[in-house]
Amino acid sequence: MSQTGIPSVNLADFLSEDPARKQKFVNEIGRAYEEIGFVALKGHFLSDELVDNLYSSVRDFYALPTETKQNYIVEGIGGQRGYTKFGNEHAKGSKVGDLKEFWHFGQYLAEEDKAKYNYPENVSVAEVPTFTQYGEETYKQLEKTGVYVLRALAIFLGLDEFYFDDKVANGNSILRAIHYPPITEEPKEGAVRAGAHGDINLITLLMGAQGRGLQVQKHDGTWVDAIAEDDELVINVGDMLSRHTNNRLKSTIHRVVNPERELWGSSRYSIPFFMHPVSDMDLSVLENCVTEENPKQFDDITAGDFLTQRLREIGLIK
Ligand SMILES: O=C(O)CCC(=O)C(=O)O
Ligand SMILES: [Fe+2]
């Protein structure tokens, strides 16, 4: 167990040559996802040095004047690359904007694949070149970590181990560097740093859950803090994977609460990696996840159509 009731797992078990250790990881993460939908994971591919370097360039970027940051807003792509300003995104079903600004890095395609996927180009920050560089390195290491997590889940679900590999290769994943600025006055209409929501994607790998703030809702409706240890990523199931598995794996509602008043003056930084498949992945419920007790719960849809629907619901596409 990590500090808070979110089960801890170690990817080194899955990567070991010992089949019993590998299966132990599969069982642990699978059971955790059938229950709380979250784990804290050690043994990932990010070095401490890369994490520190990325955070310091993230801080440098957000310290730029607002007008400079706004030069990096890309119109017409629902905030999928570059900068999104404070208050723009709200949780599905909520009317008040979250108390955050963020930046999106997207997939790094080889030149010859660009026409096939038609993703928006990544944006470089002239004032903080290291932000661009460490963002790309982190994107690739988190993507690699995510591929192994999905392999473990494929085994757990009784699929071929490599079932997800070609669905996430060149996928529409997003690395989001978030800044929750200091709170200067009583937030309007109960606005919080991040309103209660489920993530849209297959799985989310979150750097930066070390401080208090992130809370996860249990089946009984109560909230528990999710606080990771220094070397842990918090990894949760998103709505795409929950749909595909007919809700056998749970996309659990979570939020980021405002700190107590004494701590209003401090920022929170966090960096989730939203792992998406390619847009044409069929998210239709897997046959082996339909049983008499759990009949098919979701209509057939592709990942691309599901994403568009959800970006509208959270205010990123008008
Ligand atoms: O800031 C965090 O810890 C979590 C952010 C989050 O849940 C999200 O952006 O989807
Ligand atoms: Fe989230």
Automatic annotation (TrEMBL):
Signal peptide range in chain numbering: none
Pathways per UniProt: Alkene biosynthesis; ethylene biosynthesis via 2-oxoglutarate
EC number: 1.13.12.19, 1.14.20.7
GO biological processes: ethylene biosynthetic process
Gene Ontology MF term list: 2-oxoglutarate oxygenase/decarboxylase (ethylene-forming) activity; metal ion binding
Cross-referenced Gene3D superfamilies: B-lactam Antibiotic, Isopenicillin N Synthase, Chain
Transmembrane segments: none
Keyword entries, A-Z: Ethylene biosynthesis, Iron, Metal-binding, Oxidoreductase
Enzyme class: oxidoreductase
Domain Fe2OG dioxygenase: 170-277
Pfam hit, one: DIOX_N
Entry keyword Metal-binding: yes
Source superkingdom: Bacteria
InterPro entries: DIOX_N, IPNS-like_FE2OG_OXY, IPNS-like_sf, Iron_ascorbate_oxido_reductase, Oxoglu/Fe-dep_dioxygenase_dom
Catalyzed reactions per annotation: 2-oxoglutarate + O2 + 2 H(+) = ethene + 3 CO2 + H2O; L-arginine + 2-oxoglutarate + O2 = guanidine + L-glutamate 5-semialdehyde + succinate + CO2
Family to which the UniProt record says this protein belongs: Belongs to the iron/ascorbate-dependent oxidoreductase family.
Name the record gives this protein: 2-oxoglutarate-dependent ethylene/succinate-forming enzyme
Species: Faecalibacter macacae
Source species taxonomy: Bacteria, Pseudomonadati, Bacteroidota, Flavobacteriia, Flavobacteriales
